[in-house]
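Quick one, tokens below:
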């Protein structure tokens, strides 16, 4: 990546009463950088390029001990060096003489570095001669950093219309939130996922979020390798990472659900996988703070259901699903009353997308200048807003995990602070209502899942106690008319009663909750292992009068019932 001319770069001294280039506007400049990922020192030389303009080369600092290696490296990178040896040697001498004694930082991630903020290639409140982002990392944030149209036009044509939607306004606030997340005392990052059927405005919300920091023409998606996602996270550290089309997620070996869970934990955990020492120089370990927005037709729970799995509590703390209403209910435009015809809502979405393509990028620059000017006070301010939001949302009644509430609190902090500074042309009440309403929808989903889980436990408990379905066999072999009527049976074994159930029966009764309920039964010690430690045991039964063998799960009836308590939800 060729970097733009840097007006702050130091010109090398002109010695022996000569100039170093035929173009006085492009001078030879030397910089020394210490790479954050590898720890190596590098020499950067910026030079007049053979094809015109300015070029740059990054070389190991050790080339200063061998000027011929330095000459060869510069020529390979397109430097316009004289063919005459004495003139060339004089340039190389001045390059070496101009190398700073103390290296600047070549960062391996965007975001906060002490009091400055590296906005991809632009250090806000920092010296560009002292800090820069690795070029290979910067390539993974092509949408960030560019800007078009004055900020006033963005406020009038993007932010103002967004006030008619809790979802679009939330997306804009969520895009402003990443620089504050580091001060929110969070255990991990977050991904907010807008999901629902097509033509509801999901992509419109992402476009609005993208316009905060860069070009809305570059909407990235989930189609990336593990390493590609890690480098993308580093490029977007402390910045919004916006990914469309979850259906394009590329799974590695194993099920799609497990791959998605592994990636989710790595992304929000903020550290790349360890690499072999053989490739570590080329693929250094990276770290970041991830704060993302995503969209797709399915929720995380629906994604997992494709593989008959359920997300863990840890998955759902990191991946926060926000369901977009159906188009018939207004889609993302929930704050328009009375409801407009679908055609007008669609036109509203298209108009907002066009505005996002015309006006973008300036809000984040203005926001980061404001935040870096008050960096020392941010921890107290952000924590105060988070605590205030939790109090407003109702700490006892919200029904959401406190970690999820705190992440909504960071978005709330960004919205209130941006309104106070005049960046967002909204009343403070809009920030409160949008964050509280969307948190409430997540909490309602959580409560519905709890109710469904309680109902599954109750149904399994009732089936195990139904003597018509699960008879007690006092002697001989269990008898069943046909396989579909064979759910299980009880029998005395070694002086103890044992409950035998088919796994297919548990799956049919409990649905997606079956794996979780099996884990709960295992934790409670209710599951009895079979021969060789296997979970299922093979038993002889009479099926339609003929003897056959079938596999059953064996349980301790007392512990089985204790692990499946009757709850009010099940009523």
């Amino acid at each position: 990546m060729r970097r733009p001319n840097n007006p702050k770069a130091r010109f090398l001294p002109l010695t022996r009463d000569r100039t170093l280039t035929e173009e006085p506007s492009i001078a030879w400049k030397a910089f020394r950088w210490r790479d954050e990922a590898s720890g190596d020192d590098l020499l950067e030389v910026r030079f007049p390029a053979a094809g015109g303009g300015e070029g740059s080369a990054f070389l190991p600092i050790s080339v200063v001990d061998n000027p011929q290696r330095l000459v060869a490296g510069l020529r390979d990178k397109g430097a316009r060096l004289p063919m005459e040896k004495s003139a060339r040697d004089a340039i190389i001498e001045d390059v070496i003489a101009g190398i700073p004694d103390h290296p600047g930082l070549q960062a391996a991630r965007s975001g906060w570095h002490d009091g400055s903020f590296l906005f991809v290639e632009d250090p806000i409140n920092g010296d560009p001669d002292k800090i820069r982002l690795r070029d290979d990392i910067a390539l993974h944030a092509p949408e960030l950093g560019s800007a078009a149209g004055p900020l006033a036009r963005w406020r009038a044509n993007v932010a103002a219309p967004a006030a008619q939607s809790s979802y679009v306004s939330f997306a804009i606030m969520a895009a402003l939130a990443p620089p504050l997340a580091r001060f929110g005392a969070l255990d991990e990052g977050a991904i907010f996922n807008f999901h629902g059927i097509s033509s509801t405005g999901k992509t419109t919300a992402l476009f609005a979020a993208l316009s905060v920091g860069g070009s809305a023409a570059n909407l990235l998606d989930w189609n990336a390798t593990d390493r590609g996602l890690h480098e993308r996270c580093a490029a977007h550290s402390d910045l919004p990472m916006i990914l469309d089309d979850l259906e394009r997620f590329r799974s590695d070996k194993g099920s799609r659900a497990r791959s998605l869970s592994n990636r989710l934990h790595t992304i929000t955990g903020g550290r790349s996988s360890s690499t072999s020492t053989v490739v570590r120089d080329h693929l250094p370990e990276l770290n970041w703070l991830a704060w993302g927005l995503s969209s797709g037709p399915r929720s995380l729970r629906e994604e997992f259901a494709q593989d008959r799995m359920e997300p863990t509590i840890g998955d759902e703390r990191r991946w926060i699903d926000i369901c977009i209403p159906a188009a018939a209910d207004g889609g993302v435009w929930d704050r328009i009353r009375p409801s407009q015809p679908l055609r007008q809502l669609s036109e509203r979405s298209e108009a907002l997308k066009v505005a996002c393509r015309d006006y973008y990028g300036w809000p984040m620059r203005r926001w980061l200048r404001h935040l870096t000017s008050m960096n020392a006070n941010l921890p107290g301010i952000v924590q105060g807003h988070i605590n205030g939001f939790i109090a407003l949302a109702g700490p006892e009644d919200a029904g959401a995990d406190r970690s999820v509430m705190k992440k909504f609190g960071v978005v709330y902090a960004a919205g209130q602070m941006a309104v106070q500074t005049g960046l967002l042309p909204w009343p403070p009440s809009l920030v409160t209502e949008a964050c509280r309403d969307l948190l409430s929808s997540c909490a309602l989903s959580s409560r519905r899942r709890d109710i469904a889980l309680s109902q599954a436990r109750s149904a399994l408990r009732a089936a195990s106690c139904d003597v018509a379905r699960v008879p007690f066999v006092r002697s001989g072999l269990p008898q069943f008319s046909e396989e579909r009527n064979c759910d299980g049976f009880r029998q005395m074994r070694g002086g103890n009663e044992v409950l035998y159930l088919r796994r297919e029966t548990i799956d049919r009764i409990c649905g997606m909750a079956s794996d979780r309920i099996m884990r709960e039964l295992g934790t409670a010690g209710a599951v009895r292992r079979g021969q060789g430690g296997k979970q299922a045991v093979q038993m002889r039964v009479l099926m339609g009068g003929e003897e056959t063998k079938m596999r059953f799960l064996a349980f301790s009836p007392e512990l089985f019932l204790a692990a499946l308590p009757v709850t009010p939800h099940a009523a």
